[in-house]
Write a structure and sequence with these properties.
615 residues, alpha+beta, four-stranded antiparallel β-sheet, 20 helices, 18 strands, elongated, binds zinc ion
Length: 615
């Protein structure tokens, strides 16, 4: 990737107010300059839940669309149509659509792109030819093929003719195998009886221009994205070429590099959208592969595991082709079912798990903060948050397995969840050797605390700070109705926290009949007061041991994050916890025409957040 042209470079990197506010609404800016529109359903559950860590989440499928080159009668020009105006007029049209955006910036970016973006010339040529051909022909299409060449297809026999394009436009892309033109982008078409051409065509995500046609402000030189012709360099100088997969391409792009500008990482919400887009197209490609290889998949399926979902699926009143989403597909129903079965088998083998650990990423980790670009916060960099969290999780697993910080390790079941909350978190069930399980109160106290530590020496002082910021349950103080733990409760009765905070004081840790311990939370202890903002006013709250979430002092000191460690009570708890872990991808209730088609069913219900793609 090349250095951005001015003034875009300054707007993307400078820390003055104008540039910062430009980046804050960069999605809006990019929309004004995009050739193609993007279509998805925004998932608004997060904003309803009032979390502060903002997420870009979508629901269902995601597409880029190309409209007709010329707007229909009486309609405003939009997207690529605007590029067919002369620059001054184009800038005015953009300002009319987005009056809240700075008109000077609009006009300077319009002029800049005129210089840098070869796609503009492709569109201009297409439009010229459209006008010429429309006089003579009744049925034709103008196409941008995967080699970035303009092609006219006309007549009943669809004869094809390459259009000459300016030199700077031609990029050397190999011919794709097969003759199918399914990746072509249709720029203009006229068929008999369809003069308006008002419909949209979908852009194939495997077309080299899929990215630059939409993310114009990230790829102002029209840099091609992933396509079938991409290969990996062989550093040893050998001749063997290896194809670069789409997923590998995006993974490469999602790393910052010293020898190229960090453009996409500066893009805030537009970066989040880019990440979600990348994940969605890789996923949609994989689903397309599964759809076209049903024969192989079915034979696998029916010779392999008994299909646990089968009985629910058969409905003889329905006919139609059955499409199967195999259990090897991550996140699908069968995958989740299989995981659930696997973990139940692990429990059968090891008996009850000893510990249940929940670990949430901390956006203030120094490893994240020191990598942030100027004027960024962790919310702008889901890639960093996910990577650092992944490293810490691996370290945590090492500590438990090899350092045996809770005793001899037998096994575990774990999952990382990205949904519903703004930050990734790990749920982990640990199985330890029986004689080391937490069967006595004394044993529990030596590993787990539910009290504020005294700040009596340097280490405890540090721990105290960590516990106060990460392990005190304060959401529901002063009857905070918008707190997650208070939501959905009957407003006419006295509200209590769903998680049971504040707990009662407890002189000694005891183990209850159901196997769950009640942790020691001694009266008053290290209580302190803090000021909390509620309903626009500051409320002074007394914090004591009743609001401390059980933690391991060792792990809290090591990871400086919310890390809840609880003793697992009984085998009865296992099912509940497994269901909690493997509750499956979140689904919306949707009505779809065929429930025989598992891919469609999955795609309809799919949620994608910016965090998911980063692992
Ligand atoms: Zn609460």
């Amino acid at each position: 990737m090349r250095q951005l042209p001015e003034p875009l470079h300054s707007l993307m990197t400078a820390t003055d107010t104008r540039s910062k506010s430009f980046r804050r609404v960069l999605r809006r800016w990019n929309e004004q300059f995009a050739f193609t529109s993007i279509k998805f359903n925004m998932d608004r559950r997060m904003s309803e839940m009032g979390t502060t860590f903002q997420m870009f989440q979508i629901h269902g499928a995601l597409y880029h669309r190309q409209g007709p080159l010329v707007p229909g009668d009486g309609r405003d020009a939009l997207y690529s149509q605007i590029y067919l105006y002369d620059p001054e007029f184009a800038a005015q049209a953009r300002s009319r659509h987005a009056q809240e955006l700075d008109a000077d910036i609009i006009s300077s970016l319009t002029l800049m792109l005129q210089e840098t973006n070869p796609l503009i010339h492709i569109y201009l040529t297409a439009r010229e030819r459209l006008i010429e051909i429309a006089e003579a022909e009744t049925s034709f299409r103008i196409i941008l093929n995967p080699q970035l060449r303009l092609v006219v297809e006309r007549g009943a026999d669809l004869r094809r003719e390459n259009l000459p394009t300016a030199d700077e436009v031609s990029m050397i892309l190999p011919e794709e195998y097969g003759s199918a033109g399914f990746r072509d982008i249709v720029l203009a078409s006229r068929t008999n009886g369809d003069d308006q051409g008002n419909h949209f065509t979908l852009i194939n995500p495997n077309h080299a221009s899929y990215l630059p046609l939409h993310y114009v402000l990230l790829f102002p030189y029209g840099e091609p994205g992933w396509h079938w012709g991409r290969t990996l360099d062989n550093r040893e100088g050998g001749h063997q070429k290896k194809n670069l997969s789409q997923r590998t391409f995006y993974r490469f792009r999602l790393h910052q590099r010293l020898d190229e500008p960090s453009t996409i990482f500066q893009a805030q919400k537009l970066f989040q959208q880019f990440v979600v887009d990348a994940w969605a197209v890789c996923d949609q490609n994989k689903l397309a592969w599964i759809r076209s290889h049903q024969a192989n998949i079915r034979s696998d399926l029916y010779h392999g595991l008994a299909d646990v979902m089968e009985s629910e699926d058969i409905d003889l009143t329905r006919t139609g082709k059955r499409v199967v989403l195999p259990s090897s597909y991550l996140g699908g129903d069968r995958f989740m079912q299989q995981l659930y079965q696997d973990s139940i088998a692990i429990v059968r083998h090891f008996g009850k798990p000893s510990l249940f650990i929940t670990f949430t990423a901390n956006p203030k980790w120094v490893e994240i903060e020191r990598e942030l670009l100027p004027a960024q916060t962790a919310a702008d960099r889901p890639d960093l948050v996910a990577r650092v969290f992944n490293l810490k999780v691996r370290d945590l697993l090492d500590q438990i397995r090899y350092k045996e910080v809770f005793g001899p390790w037998l096994g575990w079941v774990w999952t990382i969840e990205y949904q519903k909350r703004g930050l990734p978190h790990l749920h982990l069930l640990v199985f330890l050797r029986t004689d080391h399980q937490f069967l006595t109160a004394g044993n529990i106290d030596s590993f787990i605390s539910a009290e504020l530590p005294p700040a009596d020496d340097a280490i405890n002082q540090e721990l105290r700070g960590i516990i106060e910021t990460t392990m005190v349950h304060t959401h529901c103080i002063a009857q905070n109705g918008s707190a997650l733990c208070m939501q959905g409760l009957d407003p006419f009765i006295v509200q209590t926290c769903r998680k049971g905070y504040p707990r009662s004081f407890q002189e000694e840790t005891i183990i209850n009949e159901d196997g769950y311990p009640t942790y020691r939370r001694r009266y008053m202890g290290q209580a302190y007061t803090m000021s909390i903002r509620r309903g626009g006013a500051d409320v002074t709250a007394l914090i004591d041991n009743r609001r401390v979430v059980p933690y391991s002092p060792y792990l809290s000191l090591r990871y400086r994050a919310h890390i809840n460690v609880e003793v697992c009570g009984s085998v009865k708890a296992v099912k509940y916890i497994h269901k909690y872990i493997y509750k499956g991808g979140d689904r919306a209730t949707v009505i779809i025409e065929s429930d025989q088609d598992e891919i469609k069913r999955y795609l309809h219900g799919r949620y994608i957040s910016k965090n998911g793609p980063c692992v």
